[in-house]
Design goal:
Blueprint: H1 9-18, H2 23-58, H3 62-67, E1 73-76, H4 89-97, E2 102-109, E3 115-117, H5 129-133, H6 145-149, H7 169-176, E4 181-186, H8 191-200, E5 208-211, H9 214-223, E6 229-232, H10 253-260, E7 266-269, H11 275-283, E8 287-290, H12 296-305, E9 309-312, H13 315-324
Parallel strand pairs: 1-2, 1-9, 2-4, 4-5, 5-6, 6-7, 7-8, 8-9
Antiparallel strand pairs: 2-3
The chain binds SN-glycerol-3-phosphate and calcium ion.
Calcium ion (CA) is lined by residues 104, 106, 185.
Length: 330
C-alpha cells in the first residue's frame, strides 16, 4: 500500500475519509490546511491592495496632473523641432532630454488605416517623396504606411538625419510615453481611430488630444468623456460641425462659449491672447496654452498674463526664460 506522501490529492482524501490516519498525519494535514488558508487570505489581501493601489494611481493620471500644475508647462512643438527634423523620433527624444513636460505631434490616417505622424497634408516639404515618386503635392492619406515609412524624413533638415523615417503614431507614443506625455494633434481621421489606439495601449489620460476641428473634439469627448482634450484656436470647424468664422483671431468670451460646447478643458491658442481672456478662461475652469513661442520677450509677456503653458520649437529656451524670471520675483 502506498505511503501517505506517495498518494495524490484524491488518494489522500480517500484515506482521510476511511479514518485510517495516524494522529500525527491528521495534525500535519490540519497544519497544512491552515497554511493553505493563510496563503489564500494573503493573496486575496494583496489582490485587494493591488487594485486599491491601481485605482489610487488612476485617480491622478498624467493628463490630470498636468492640468493641475501650478507652474507653466513647457511643451515641445513637433518635438525639439528647432534642432531636429520635426515630428520624428530624434526630435521627440531630444525634447525629452531637454525636459519637456509634453511633446506635441501631428497625425493623419494612411491609405491602409494606420495613423502616421506628420504635420503637412502634402509630403513635399518634410520628406524626399517628390524625388521618390517624381511628383509634387503628394497627399499623405493617399499612401500606405509602408510606402510612407520608406521615405527619408530627415535629410531635408540636415544630412546627419538622413534615413530618419516618418514614425507611426504607435511608435511615437512608445517613445514619448516612456518619459514624457504626448500632446496628440489630430490633422485627419475620425476620433474612433485614435481612441482605438489609445485604448489598446492603455493611454487614456496618459496623453492629451487636441484639434483645430472642434467637431472632432466634441465627438471625441462624447465617445470618451474621461480623456482630457484641448481645443486649438482659432478653430477651423465649430462643435456643431459648421465652418468657423475667420474672425476674430483673438481669444474672446465668445470663443470660450463655443469652446465649452466641445468638452475641452484647455484653450490652445495662438499668441493673440490677453490678460483679460486668460482671466475669463480661468474663471470658467479652463487652462490656456499658447503656440508657437520661440522668443523670450513674447514668452515673458504671456507668462505675465498668466498663461498655463507655452508650446515651443525650443524647449530649453523656454525653460531658461522661466528660470530667469526668478530674478524679478520680490
Ligand atoms: O500645438 C499647437 C500647434 O501645433 C498648432 O499649429 O500648425 O503647428 O500644428 P501647427
Ligand atoms: Ca501641431
Amino acid at each position: 500500500m502506498p505511503s501517505y506522501a506517495q498518494l495524490d490529492g484524491v488518494g489522500r482524501f480517500a484515506l482521510a475519509a476511511s479514518g485510517r490516519l495516524s494522529h500525527r498525519t491528521r495534525l500535519r494535514m490540519t497544519r497544512k490546511a491552515a497554511e493553505n488558508r493563510l496563503l489564500k487570505a494573503c493573496s486575496v489581501i494583496s489582490l485587494v491592495l493591488g487594485t486599491l493601489d491601481m485605482n489610487a494611481s488612476e485617480t491622478n493620471p498624467p493628463a490630470l496632473k498636468l492640468l493641475a500644475s501650478q507652474r507653466p508647462l513647457v511643451i515641445a512643438h513637433r518635438g525639439y523641432s528647432q534642432f531636429a527634423p520635426e515630428n520624428t523620433l530624434p526630435s521627440f527624444k531630444m525634447a525629452m532630454a531637454a525636459g519637456a513636460d509634453m511633446v506635441e505631434l501631428d497625425y493623419y490616417p494612411t491609405l491602409d488605416g494606420k495613423l502616421i505622424v506628420i504635420h503637412d497634408h502634402y509630403l513635399d516639404r518634410t520628406t524626399d517623396a517628390t524625388n521618390h515618386w517624381a511628383e509634387t503635392n503628394i497627399n499623405v492619406e493617399a499612401k500606405t504606411a509602408a510606402e510612407l515609412q520608406s521615405l527619408d524624413a530627415g535629410s531635408w533638415f540636415d544630412r546627419k538625419y538622413a534615413g530618419t523615417h516618418i514614425p507611426l503614431l504607435a511608435e511615437a507614443l512608445d517613445t514619448i510615453q516612456a518619459g514624457s506625455v504626448t500632446l496628440i494633434e489630430r490633422k485627419g481621421g475620425a476620433p474612433a481611430d485614435c481612441l482605438k489606439l489609445l485604448r489598446e495601449k492603455g493611454l487614456i489620460n496618459r496623453v492629451i488630444v487636441q484639434s483645430f476641428d472642434w467637431e472632432y473634439i466634441r465627438a471625441f469627448h462624447e465617445q470618451e468623456p474621461e480623456q482630457v482634450l484641448g481645443a486649438l484656436g482659432p478653430p477651423e470647424r465649430l462643435a456643431g460641425g459648421e465652418k468657423a468664422p475667420k474672425t476674430p483671431k483673438e481669444l474672446t468670451a465668445a470663443w470660450l462659449d463655443e469652446l465649452q460646447k466641445t468638452g475641452a478643458q484647455v484653450a490652445v491658442w495662438s499668441d493673440r491672447v490677453s490678460a483679460d481672456a486668460v482671466r475669463l478662461a480661468h474663471q470658467r475652469g479652463l487652462k490656456v496654452w499658447v503656440y508657437t513661442i520661440n522668443d523670450p520677450d513674447l514668452a515673458n509677456n504671456l507668462l505675465d498674463m498668466g498663461v498655463d503653458g507655452l508650446i515651443t520649437n525650443n524647449t530649453s529656451l523656454i525653460w531658461r526664460t522661466i528660470a530667469l524670471r526668478a530674478r524679478k520675483a520680490p
